[in-house]
Each structure stands twice: as structure tokens, then as C-alpha cells.
Design a protein that fits this description.
Layout lengths: L11 H10 L5 H11 L13 H11 L7 H17 L9 H4 L7 H14 L6 H9 L11 H5 L6 H12 L2
Helix pairs in contact: 1-4, 2-3, 6-9
């Protein structure tokens, strides 16, 4: 429900909207409550990395309250704002990485690309250079398609790797 954590790392204006609506709720709670409020949803599975995240999930799911109509509208508007800031909507699940014959660190490159687009910066990237020293460069993609066949987001990974290569290698 939190899209590999990407719905927790939201633009500042989205975070402010959620905090204004309820300062005691976490950012993650909005995403999980949204999923649990949808018709026909009987269970919401959420990955958690520590006890604090587990306790947060339990705090609002123990006595679950579906989103009100106003909250649903707010979350849908927030989703639109989030989508506008993400050039490549990769969740960093890394399913694409294991089968890559060129050992390209696809999610890491997509993250760098998104950060570059959000900050509107240009020029060399030390982070890209460091990653490409130990992994295949984005331009090393042989377009085998293995990554695209397994991507749960159905991303055009080959095309996006070309964009990454143009941005950081060109």
C-alpha cells in the first residue's frame, strides 16, 4: 500500500496537507487507510522494517476507521501531486535486477534520475559515477526485455534506461 516506501517520501506540500488534516497520523497511515477503505478490500499487507512501523500500523488498524469522503478526496489530490513529481514511478522492488545480464542497478539509476528531475540540476553526478563503477552503466542495456517482463509496475525500463544514460553519460 505504500508503494515500496515511495508514498512515505512525499513532496513537502503533500506532507503538510496530511499533517494539517491530522497531526497525529503518520504519512504511511494515509496510504494504508486509503487501500483498506476501498470497496472489496478485505486485507491490507504492509511491509515493515522495524517495531516503530509495526506499532504505527497497529495504532490505526486496530480500531480501523475508513477514510471519510473529504479524506478520500484529499488523498486522491495528494496522489496527483505525488505523480507530478516522479518522472519514473519505480518502487525499487529490485525484481528487474536479478535477471539483468549486464548487472545494471536499475532502481538506483531511476532514483538518481528522479532526484535530478525534481531538483532540475544538470551536469556530472558523483553518485552515478560511483554506481556505474561497480555495476553496469545504463547505456550497457542490451534491451533483452527480461526486466520489463517481470516489472510489477509495467515500466518501459529499456526506454527509461536510455533516458538515464542520456542524462548522466551524455
Amino acid at each position: 500500500p505504500v508503494k515500496g516506501g515511495s508514498l512515505i517520501r512525499v513532496p513537502d506540500e503533500v506532507a503538510a496537507t496530511f499533517k494539517e488534516a491530522d497531526p497525529n497520523r503518520s504519512i504511511a497511515s494515509w496510504a494504508i487507510r486509503f487501500a483498506a477503505s476501498l470497496d472489496g478490500v478485505r486485507m491490507v499487507l504492509s511491509g515493515m522494517s522495524n517495531t516503530e512501523q509495526m506499532e504505527d500500523n497497529l495504532s490505526y488498524m486496530d480500531a480501523f476507521e475508513p477514510l471519510s469522503e473529504a479524506e478520500m478526496d484529499m488523498v486522491l489530490r495528494a496522489g496527483e501531486q505525488i505523480r507530478k513529481t516522479i518522472a519514473i514511478p519505480c518502487t525499487a522492488c529490485e525484481y528487474c535486477v536479478a535477471g539483468c545480464p549486464m548487472h545494471i542497478c536499475i532502481p538506483d539509476y531511476f532514483k538518481l534520475y528522479n532526484e535530478r528531475k525534481q531538483t532540475l540540476s544538470a551536469g556530472k553526478s558523483k553518485a552515478y559515477d560511483e554506481l556505474s563503477a561497480t555495476h553496469g552503466k545504463a547505456s550497457a542495456c542490451v534491451a533483452c526485455g527480461q526486466c520489463e517482463g517481470i516489472c510489477p509496475q509495467h515500466l518501459p525500463i529499456i526506454e527509461n534506461l536510455r533516458l538515464v544514460a542520456e542524462t548522466f553519460e551524455g
